[in-house]
Each structure stands twice: as structure tokens, then as C-alpha cells.
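Class prep. Write one:
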Amino acid sequence: MTSDMFDIVRIVLILAVGLLRIGMMPYYLQSYLNIAYEKIEIQKKESGRITNKELQKKIARVFYYLCVVTLQYVAPVILCIFLSLMFKTLGGLSWGAFIGRVVEEGECGLSPEGGEPMATIPTLQEAESVLEATKIVSLGMDELKKVFTTEFYRGVFGFTTWWCVFSWFVSGTFGVAYQSYFTKG
């Protein structure tokens, strides 16, 4: 298995888990909304009287935070999906590596253009017209593109994607441990 194929397999797995989580979102949100029903059931077992206002407040709290719960569920999924797609695109990876087809560089028909040497590029203050200033800025951007190569993006987005997926997993694990430990059984 090549390095490119390994990266594409990781991206496909992240996308599959992300789409699975988005598909499971209605069930997750319904389980959150069931907390209101569980609170009423617990309230029925308690002795004493409670006013309608207090009961409504107890139930309304669950529904007020539905948007927050949805955001906490969806935001990490979307972040991981977008970071993995940026890792694929800016890292120069191809879906062809997933099916075993190696994509050669320059296959898209684009060829790298050679820029002027740095010594002959005038500064922006020396520009006498808008066209010269535009040329200077575009040459500066071309030099900047030489720094931000696909290897740079692979490193940055590979680490960022790994870190987001790891944080997502650890926070989910702590959430499950917390709920299983502190849930009244």
C-alpha cells in the first residue's frame, strides 16, 4: 500500500463515518428530546407537589438547548469532513489512488511556469503604472506559491485532520464514560 493510497483510505473512512453520523443525527436528537419525558417520569415518582410553571420550566430547558446540542453534534463532523477534503485537494491526492490508478503529475495539462529571477523584480514602490504593480503583485504571489507546495499542505492538513479526529474521538469517549458513570441506573 502506497502512502497516497493510505491517505485516501483514511479520507474515505473519515467521510464514511461523518456521513454515518449525519445520517444518525435524527435518532441522536430524538434521544436528547426524550430527556424531557424522562424528567417527567422521575417527577411522577417523587413525593410532593410541583406547580405547573416549575414543570414547564423543567421541560422547556430541554427544548431551549436543542440548537446547542445540534451544533455540538454537527460541528465536529463538518469540520472533520472539510479538513479531510482540503487535505485531499490541496495535498495533491487523487481518488485514483483509492482504486489503484496512479495519477501522473502534469496529467491535467497544466505545466509549471517559470518566473523571473528575484533580482530583476522591482519593488511595489517603484511601479509607475497599475499594470506594473499588478505584475509585481502576481510575481510575488507566484513566489509565495513556491513556498506553499503540496508537501506543505499535506503536512499541515494531515496533522490538522488527525488532531480534529483524535479530539472528536477523545471527547466522545469522555462523554460516554461520563454518562455511563453518572447515569442513575
